[in-house]
Design brief:
This protein is mostly helical and about 170 residues long. The protein has a single domain, classed as Four Helix Bundle (Hemerythrin (Met), subunit A) (Up-down Bundle), CATH 1.20.120. The protein has seven helices and no strands.
C-alpha cells in the first residue's frame, strides 16, 4: 500500500514538475494565457469531480460486498461481482486512470496534459495488468479466473456508465 501511495505521489508531483519544465521549453506563452488556464481549470474540476464520484461509488460497493468479517478499511476478503462489478473488473481503476489528467488540467500544463498524463495512464494500465490482476488471482484463485473470462477490465456501454455513476448508499 505504501509503495502504491509513493507511486501516486511521484506521478502527480513529478507530472506537475515535469510539465512545468517542458512547458517552459515547448509552450512558453501558455503561462500568460488566462483563457487557457480558465478553460483548463474548469475541465480539470469536472474531471476530478467525476474521478472522485467513481472512487466513492466503487469504494462503497467494495465495502458493502467485499467483506465477510470485520476487516480494516480498504481491505476485502470476498470477490465482488455485484453492482458495477457485474459489468467490469476494475471500475475504480477506470476512474483513477483520469486522475493524472484532472491534475494536469487543474494546473494548466499543456505538457502534462499532452505527454505526461497519457504516459502515466499507460503506466497505470500496466500496473493493473501485471500487479492488480496477479494479486486478485492469488487472492481469489479460480473464482477470479472464471470472473475474468466473462467480465472485461472496463466497459463503456451506457448501462455500465450509468451504474458507475449511480450513488451507492453507505452500509
Amino acid at each position: 500500500m505504501l509503495i502504491r501511495l509513493l507511486i501516486w505521489f511521484i506521478m502527480i508531483f513529478g507530472g506537475i514538475a515535469g510539465g512545468y519544465l517542458l512547458d517552459r521549453h515547448f509552450f512558453p506563452a501558455v503561462h500568460r494565457n488566462i483563457f487557457f488556464h480558465i478553460i483548463s481549470f474548469a475541465g480539470g474540476s469536472i474531471v476530478l469531480f467525476l474521478v472522485l464520484k467513481v472512487s466513492k461509488n466503487t469504494g462503497r460497493t467494495l465495502a458493502k460486498y467485499g467483506r465477510t468479517d470485520d476487516l480494516p478499511r480498504m481491505k476485502t476478503n470476498k470477490l465482488v461481482t455485484d453492482g458495477i462489478y457485474i459489468y467490469m473488473r476494475h471500475p475504480m481503476h477506470l476512474g483513477l486512470l483520469f486522475f493524472p489528467l484532472s491534475i494536469a488540467l487543474l494546473v494548466g500544463s499543456p505538457s502534462f496534459i499532452l505527454f505526461i498524463a497519457p504516459f502515466e495512464i499507460f503506466f497505470m494500465l500496466l500496473l493493473i495488468k501485471f500487479a492488480e490482476e496477479r494479486e486478485a488471482i492469488d487472492k481469489f484463485g479460480d473464482d477470479y479466473c472464471e470472473y475474468m473470462k466473462h467480465v472485461p477490465w472496463f466497459c463503456f456501454k451506457i448501462e455500465c456508465l450509468k451504474e458507475l455513476f449511480r450513488e451507492v448508499p453507505k452500509n
